[in-house]
Amino acid sequence: MNGILLVALLLLIPILFLLGKTKQSKRVPPGSLGIPIIGQSLGYLRARRANIAEKWIEDRINKYGPISKLSLFGKPTVLIHGQAANKFIFTNGGGNIVNMQIQSIKMILGDRNLQELSGKDLCRVRGALVSFLKPESLKQYVYKIDEEVRSHIQMHWEGKQKVKVLPLMKTLTFNIISSLLFGLESGKQRDQFMNPFQELMKGVLSVPINIPFTRYNRSLKASARIQNMLKEIVHQKTVEQEKNGINPRQDLISCMLSMVEDDKQVLTENEIIHNAMLVMVAGYDTSSVLITFIIRLLANEPAICAAVLQEQEEIAKGKLLGEPLTWEDLSKMKYTWRVAMETLRMVPPVFGGFRKAATDIEYGGYIIPKGWQIFWVTSMTHMDNNIFPEPSKFDPSRFENQASTPPYCFVPFGGGARICPGNEFARIETLVAIHYLVTKFSWKLLSDNSFSRDPMPTPTQGLLIELFPRKQLS
Which domain of life is it from (predicted)? Predict the structure, then answer.
């Protein structure tokens, strides 16, 4: 009996050794997954709202090193950061890393949106969006954005002594999106979108526990309402297309409906609706936040404000009274766009992003298990002194020669093949808005410079300012 036991032990030792080696080779990064489902989500969200999210990340890095595990929004997650991490995220084209958003975004925006797709589906849907959002297509929409901006300023700014900038910028970007993406001009149908859309935005970044009265629950209900309204618009445009044909450049939905291959529509109805919602959400918050923080910056930096004003007044002098801006005018706004780029560096609207490991991935000496989220953080390279000297100093000259910035270090729009397809759209919105605001008004801040992230950067009191009309150029 003892002999049999000895033989069994001798056979078991190499098996245990091999299992031990396998376990070691599959070593996940250090850290803790915390409480099931909740994990570190609440702590992370609290840090964002208190505008100490960077410190929250730095504390983790100091404790666990450059790569660590945690749980965010119901999923096991690996945090990575830095230039190498950005390159790893944006150039991993072998299928090891796939698009994925946190559960709340997926459920609120729909599972056929661009951020949830990979492979052929990603190429097909991205191609449809890019056909509308590429510079060659957007050139013809400058006049429409110009019209929306001037109408907005006349209605909400002129004759006012004080305004809250962020709410107004959100109104502006919502109206531009409604017009260009859905073909909704000002009126009842456009107005019906506003309240559910604002409710939807509140729960985009939330713990996905669907119980009554939570942000997530209210956002899901708002999403259902918006999807039903978009479905009605799609049906209206489909009928119009069948009866009279449709101008594919009329708006984004018309463009997506008009895309046909082998007598079949390229995109399904769900893909049209889910991606219209994605562009709506992405364009609404990011551009409004960028314009708001440029206005904040210009109030704090008189020399930079004077240089922006000089550039914009030179353009205004070449225009007839009431003549809209053109694509050529925007191309002359080089300094203004450098100011916008530096604003994006210091206050990126998107704090970070998520991907998913499609297979076990080795990174930084550890294994990121298949199915886990990968969380990367924008500002860790934007505020790195080794990349951008004196990172807390606002200096638009950093972007005079953009090629001098190391690759994968300035990533407000992402990078590589997954760079945001709407970045040119955001540039046009921003430049047109800043042109009319700086040539019509000066302003001073009536609130402090603090802001939170909920989920986007949100200044105290919505950035309350006092307005002073400028003498208009004759």
Answer: Eukaryota
Q: What is the DSSP string of 51-110?
A: T-HHHHHHHHHHHH-SSEEEEETTEEEEEE-SHHHHHHHHH--SSSEEE---HHHHHHH-
Nearest CA-CA partner of 255 in 139, 111, 125, 419? 125
The Cα 28–Cα 218 span in angstroms is 36
Nearest one of 100, 64, 95 to 366, comparing CA atoms? 64
Nearest residue to 372 (alpha-carbon basis) of 149, 64, 70, 58 = 70
Nearest residue to 142 via CA among 176, 182, 184: 176
Please report whether residue 31 resides in a domain: no
- Residue 407 in domain: yes
* Chain Cα centroid distance, residue 116: 15
Which tens digits make up the pLDDT trace of 9-65?
444 444 433 444 334 346 899 999 998 888 999 999 899 888 898 899 999 999 999
Domain membership of residue 416 (yes or no) is: yes
Whether 287 contacts 271, CB under 8 Å: no
CA nearest to 431, candidates 368, 344, 339, 321:
339
CATH of the domain at 109: 1.10.630.10
One-letter identity of residue 133: L
CA-to-CA dists, residue 324 to 321, 372, 432, angstroms: 9, 49, 10
Distance CA 120, CA 232 (A): 28
Does some domain include residue 156? yes
Q: What is the mean pLDDT of residues 335-351?
A: 94
Residue 207 DSSP one-character state = -
Domain count of the chain?
1
Range of the domain at 228: 47-67+75-469
Mean pLDDT, the chain, integer: 86
Q: Are 43 and 56 in contact (CB under 8 A)?
A: yes
Distance, in Å, from the CA atom of 393 to the CA atom of 396, rounded to the nearest integer, reads 10
The rounded Cα 299 to chain-centroid distance in angstroms is: 25
103-112, 203-212, 313-322, 436-445: range with highest mean pLDDT: 436-445
**Alpha helix locations (H) across 402-466?**
423-440
Which of 331, 463, 340 has its CA nearest to residue 413? 340
Q: In angstroms, rounded to a whole number, what is the distance separating the alpha carbons of residues 24 and 105?
A: 35
Q: pLDDT value at position 50?
A: 87
What phi and psi values does residue 443 have, to the nearest 5 degrees?
A: -160, 165
Q: With beta carbons less than 8 A apart as the criterion, state whether 216 and 104 touch.
A: yes
pLDDT digits (tens, 9 = 90+) for 374-388: 998 877 899 999 999
